[in-house]
Structure formats: C-alpha cells, structure tokens
Amino acid sequence: MRIIIYVEKTFNRLLRVFATRCRSIALPLAVCALFMCCSGRIENGSKPTREETADRIMHNAEIEFTEEGKATGKLSAEKLLFFDKEHRTFGYDITVDFFNNKGDIAGQLTSDSGWVENTTRRTTVYGNVYLTMQDGTQLWTDSLAYYPKAGRIRTGTYVRIERGGEHIAGTGFDSDLDFTDIRIEQDVSGRLREN
C-alpha cells in the first residue's frame, strides 16, 4: 500500500511539473500514469494451455488417411490434442507420410507442430517444416498449409526448394502436390527446371 501511494504521489508531482511547462502533453501523461498505477494492482489471470482445454490427448499417435478405400497418408505425432467442438486436432512433433495411387510412399513431411481441420482435412504445420518427395524434391519453410479441395500447398513465409542440383527460394509459395506448377510471390532467387 505504501509503495502504491508513494508511486501515485510521485506521478502527481511529475504531472504538475509537466502541466506547468507543457500544457499540451499533460492529459496524455495523466492517462499513461493512471494506467501504470492501476496495472500494478490487477493480478494477471493465466490463460489455459492447449492441453488443459483439449477434450482428449493421445500420445505416440498414428492416424491413417484414406480416400475411396485407398490409403493416402499416415500421420504420426508425439502428442495429439483433440478439440471436438472445434472439429480440430493439434499435434506436436509431426511426421506425415504421403502415398501415391499404388500405395507407395510419395513423400514425407516433418514439423514441430500443426493443426488438422477434421471436416475439411485442411492441415497447417509450423516450425522446422521439411518436405521431401520421392523424386528428390526438398522443401524447407517455417509454415505450410495443405488445401485438399484445391490440391495445393501454400505458405506466406520464406521457402526454399531444391531438386536435381538446382534451387529456388522466396516469400509466398503456392504449388500443386507434384511440384509442377510452383509459384513464388516475392524476393525470388535461384532457378528450378521442370522434371
């Protein structure tokens, strides 16, 4: 209590000095002082973590994705958090294997974490995203989103792609799943020939 009263008195003295010297800034300073004095008295409530709000948690999880009875992918994660009302799943330390029409592995993606929209299967991954395809194409970025209806992968962040000893890099990326229609929006560098 004594500290708060002392701080308020100190601010009041400062405000009087500034008010006499600069009347035009007295009101903004008074508002700032009021907020600073009040903010010390309010206790910060901690926000609940994702784990505390999850409906279910699965450790060392594996989920297979199928389309018309054929396996299209397999997601493995250290931990999955299920949010039933939001129809979303959040995962940590994610690995996704993609399969081609024959059921063979066509590529693999790894990331630190990510969201899956359960109804649309839209997937967004974050942190140390690395994608490698069977043809040797490799991609590095900080985030990547998969849009199943469009059959495209996209990011607004920096991306680097390597294939056959060549590379292309830039910010803002949009591509089909075969990497035949690659678009980079800004700061493009390098060159990448089609297969």
* Record field, number of beta strands: 9
Specify the number of helices. Answer: 3
Q: Oligomeric status of the shown chains? A: single chain
Main-sheet strand order equals 1-2-3-4-5-6-7-8-9
Q: What level of helicity do the residues show?
A: 10-25%
Major β-sheet profile? 9 strands, antiparallel
Radius of gyration, taken over Cα atoms and rounded to an integer in Å: 26 Å
SSE pattern, N- to C-terminal: HHHEEEEEEEEE
- What is the overall pLDDT average? 78
Question: What is the overall shape?
Answer: globular
Give the strand content: over 45%
> Unreliable runs, pLDDT <50, ≥5 residues?
1-44
Structural class by helix and strand composition: alpha+beta
What is the first-to-last residue Cα distance? 73 Å
What does this entry look like structurally?
By secondary structure, this protein is an alpha+beta fold. It is 19% helix and 54% strand. The protein contains three helices and nine strands, in the order H-H-H-E-E-E-E-E-E-E-E-E. It has a nine-stranded antiparallel β-sheet with strand order 1-2-3-4-5-6-7-8-9. Helix 1 (2-21) runs antiparallel to helix 2 (26-39). The longest helix is centred in the first third of the chain and has 20 residues, at 2-21. It starts with a helix and ends with a strand. The relative contact order is 0.08. Mean pLDDT is 78; it is low at 1-44.
